[in-house]
Amino acid sequence: LFKGTASRTAEEIAQAVDLLKKVGQANADTVYPSITLLEMPKADVLDWKPGDPLKRQAAMVYRNNGETYEATIDLVEKKVVNHKSVPNVEPMILDREWAYARDKAMADER
To answer: Mean per-residue pLDDT for 42-64?
Structure first.
C-alpha cells in the first residue's frame, strides 16, 4: 500500500484538532462530525518516489459555539490551510445526538 494514500490515523486526527485549537478556532466544547483525509492529486501520486515528501491534508467540518465551520489542515506542514464559517448549515448528526433522541423517544409514555 502506498503510504500517501493510507487512511487517516488517530494521531493525524488528534493533530488536526490540536492545530485548530492552537489558532483559536476550536475549544474543548467543539464537536467534529467529519474529519477526512484529502486525496493527493493524481499527478503527485504518479510522480512520487521513495523518500519524496507526502502531501497529507485533512478536511474538517466542525461545530463551535453554535456555528458550523470547514477547515483544511496540512498535516505535514502542521498548519491550517483554510478555515471558513458556513452560515445557516447544520453538520451531519453525531452518534450522541441519535442516542439522545432515541432515549427521549423511548422515555416518552405517549
So the answer is: 88
